[in-house]
Amino acid sequence: VGYGLHVVIDHGNGWTSMNAHLLKSFVVVGERVDRGQTIALLGDSGNSSGAHLHYEQVLDKTVQPAVFNGTPFVYNTSLSSRNCGDSPVAGDWNGDRSSDVGVFRRQADTAVFRKLWPDGTTKLGPFGLPTDTPVVGDWDGDGQFNLGVWSSPSATFTLKKANGGEHVFAFGNSSDLPVAGDWNGDGRWDVGTFEPATATFFLRDALGNVTTKAFGSVSSLPIAGDWDGDGRSNVGVYNPTTTTFRLAMPDGTTKTVVYGTPTSLPVVGSWSAGSVSKLGVWDTATGVFSKRFSGKHTEKVRFGRSR
Ligand SMILES: [Ca+2]
Ligand SMILES: [Ca+2]
Ligand SMILES: [Ca+2]
Ligand SMILES: [Ca+2]
């Protein structure tokens, strides 16, 4: 009762942190969360005397002093965290049918996509907010990927149009995670959400029709790709703890691929020009993308800021 609505995060190695007196939580027990993810709204629940955040970090059940950027926190002073690291993305930025990589970088008040072009240059795409989750796809079907973000608090997608405009619409719930793919194979990418509590994908086509598919578990990270090359994207999940991809094949079977490290996040792309999607990971500890062409062939490229 004292802490009201609270979220405890298990950071591994005996470390946990608690965020208490929350107004609303966007996560469920067992869900895997990442840096930069909006997990809750600050509030005044429980034994609280006004809206504030009760933050605690604990090592082996003993509360530890909070330190931000090497500076011990002092009550009634202000410190900004700088640990919202890059999030990996992959898409065909230049339209040569081969996917490129990039990162979504959260800054103090803004966010920017940093896109690695095939010639080695980095192109910047300022878009979204630091509280957003990146989602990229070829929304207009011209062969070049476009930017987009998902806002958890408002459960809305904001997709950037090639002409500079934005397509904003509500979809899913605040506790969902976003995915993108061409579900109906018309060449224009669509979006969807994964609901961890029920391990269910909700895939939305351009007309607003929704297809549901139960796949994965509460701790799954959702992915999508065209695993069989028929032009329609399929869903899948990644579990960093076991470094295991599980892909939902169109014939109803599940394909399992072990790849990556426990500090990896999944990325999916057509690394060699073609319609079949390939797997990949970005290692948060090293900032290295590993693009898996086959079981025997991986290409590595370092890009983005390691954490
Ligand atoms: Ca490309
Ligand atoms: Ca496009
Ligand atoms: Ca489509
Ligand atoms: Ca397919």
Q: Which features characterize this protein?
A:
about 300 residues, mainly beta, Glucose Permease (Domain IIA), Neuraminidase, five-stranded antiparallel β-sheet, four-stranded antiparallel β-sheet, globular, binds calcium ion
- Supply the number of structural domains: 2
How many E-type strands? 27
List the ions, cofactors and other small molecules found in this model: calcium ion
Structural class, by secondary structure, is mainly beta
CATH top-level class of the largest domain = Mainly Beta
- Roughly how many Å apart are the termini? 35 Å
Topology pattern, helix = H, strand = E: EEEEEEEEEEEEEEEEEEEEEEEEEEE
CATH superfamily of the largest domain: Fucose-specific lectin
Q: Could you tell me the strand content as a percent range?
A: 35-45%
* Biggest sheet overview: 5 strands, antiparallel
Oligomer: single chain
**CATH level 3 topology of the largest domain:** Neuraminidase
In short:
Helices cover 0% and strands 45% of the residues. It is mostly beta strands and 307 residues long. Strand 9 (100-106) and strand 10 (111-116) form a beta hairpin.
